[in-house]
Amino acid sequence: xxxxxxxxxxxxxxxxxxxxxxxxxxxxxxxxxxxxxxxxxxxxxxxxxxxxxxxxxxxxxxxxxxxxxxxxxxxxxxxxxxxxxxxxxxxxxxxxxxxxxxxxxxxxxxxxxxxxxxxxxxxxxxxxxxxxxxxxxxxxxxxxxxxxxxxxxxxxxxxxxxxxxxxxxxxxxxxxxxxxxxxxxxxxxxxxxxxxxxxxxxxxxxxxxxxxxxxxxxxxxxxxxxxxxxxxxxxxxxxxxxxxxxxxxxxxxxxxxxxxxxxxxxxxxxxxxxxxxxxxxxxxxxxxxxxxxxxxxxxxxxxxxxxxxxxxxxxxxxxxxxxxxxxx
Length: 328
Description:
- This protein is of the alpha/beta class and about 325 residues long.
- Helix content is about 60%, strand content about 10%.
């Protein structure tokens, strides 16, 4: 993105992918680069689930009396993906515009999915002639680098082990990570250090973390402490079925990392194969080390069986999950 910003503005741009926060940041950076404000006459935004593409093209071809440069944004360009749109889009109008764009105007199309229909003529032409950027969720080192830069922008410092805990606690939702960074900046102040104590005070514990601690206690053969965490979760009105789903997810991760480790895969390779951050892989390997492959397989099978029993109404969900915990 830095390389793109140093180049001249591409007249037609397409951002697609699940990470909409990156799209919004790029559009905001473009507005700044073009000396435009999102609320002035130089920026026009249309929702393409309500407005046909031909109207956006007509707007792009109309010269403005109020701004030398213009930014025309077409959100939710679903006609570029598979499936039918509720709006009648004339894709030919976009094809013609790609051949003859207006020099003073930048047209941006956004699509909040990674499923472009590459069979469509208009998609092929965009991929060939437009500036196309995939905004996928960040993971691994990319996510850590992004978060560290965001913390540095807020003029704070953070150690790598605290950074990992930050990600483990919040997840890889960039919008939420950005909000938590701003909250920490208000609390810590400029040139302050983000510590584990600050994380504990300002970022609430998640259900995922509590379930992780529950499984950790089971791995350590501390059944009483695991059951106390379970009781605390019930007291906080957490849904037993959701807790069970997270237990199943962690058991799967423990089993898969054990199997991949047996094949000689590194933690980095496992993270890429399983599409998760390397830190949960490290923790899953550590937790799974106390069990054999057969034990993990049995626990996972029991958990899935109980999940099916609950969903088919064959028992009390709290009792069934508790029975699973007692069977470890």
